[in-house]
Amino acid sequence: MIAAAVAGCGGHETASESTATTRAERTCVAGSTRPVGNVRRSYAAVVQERAEAFQQPSSARLASFGRENVNGVPTVFAVLAKRVDGACVAQWYRVQLPLKPNGIVGWVRASDVELAPVTTRLEVDLSERRVTLFDRGRRVLSATAAIGSPQTPTPTGSFYVNQRLVPEDTSGPFGPGAIGISAFSDVLTGWTQGGPIAIHGTNRPDLLGQAVSNGCIRVRNDLLRRLFDRTRAGTPVTVHA
Known about the structure:
This protein has two helices and 19 strands. The chain has 241 residues and is mainly β.
């Protein structure tokens, strides 16, 4: 079992993002939706006390979230868009949720979260069996990876880092740490917490470059430490074949 370690999300901004952005937008159509972030900078929404996710603003409720998740780390969503008032102040955020089915999105009230800017993103290339870290659009690290076996494949899609965890035994199968992402195995549905997927270290470096895992992505321990240090909660993660 992995023990949780609270991982910071970087410097927080207000729920309306930055004053520079607000000044640039000046006026908005109340109720309009605008995208948030780009390839060089994205945003994490950090739950302050409690947040409810809805299918649409003030519509059917999808789920409720506390300040911390089941592993005792801050609850974080990836921000995709915002719904604003006439003064361009965000009232709602459209966010990706750490729930099944993979890639599920919902809306949370802007007043329930605080935004944290994220400049990193991760790409997992299953065919090349490689993990690449980008910062501000520039590639800064690339590592050979072990991926899911044909029986327990690594799910593909667009996800985000929702937690960073430190195992009780850093010499074990997870190595020195695990970067949890908002994806779940499509096969191991009966596993603890629904079969969450992570990028983690390994005590079997001889298996790197092979399709042998239960769906997680394994990298060399020294490279995992570098990824762990640079990859904050909210980092977008793309996994493709």
